[in-house]
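Exercise 7. Given the encoded structure of a 105-residue chain, write a plausible sequence.
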């Protein structure tokens, strides 16, 4: 059975298809998940939040992403010990930091 990996797509991200391709090349069942979805695919074993935001990291993409409906499912997945590689973990950290400060940007 192939591991199922959700690759979350946001407007302005440009590495989502690259991430999906690489994961499939490694034998994973990589599924693109649009940011407006409210649930991860059933059986998801890992979540990737690709970088490469076309507007630059200085806009604090994690703080902006926290408003996306899919992020409730992603943060629950992370809280339950789900795997979030590299930049995905950074985005969750920034999301939590912005939420704790009550930031709206």
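Solution.
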């Amino acid at each position: 059975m192939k591991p199922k990996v959700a690759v979350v797509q946001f407007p302005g991200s440009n590495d989502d298809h690259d991430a999906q391709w690489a994961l499939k090349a490694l034998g994973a069942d990589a599924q693109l998940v649009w940011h407006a979805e409210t649930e991860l695919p059933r059986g998801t074993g890992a979540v990737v939040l690709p970088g490469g935001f076309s507007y630059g990291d200085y806009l604090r993409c994690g703080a902006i992403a926290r408003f996306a409906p899919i992020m409730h499912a992603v943060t629950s997945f992370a809280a339950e010990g789900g795997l979030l590689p590299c930049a995905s973990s950074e985005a969750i950290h920034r999301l939590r930091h912005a939420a704790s400060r009550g930031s709206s940007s």
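Remark. DSSP finds four helices and three strands in the chain. Students should compare their own answers with the one above.
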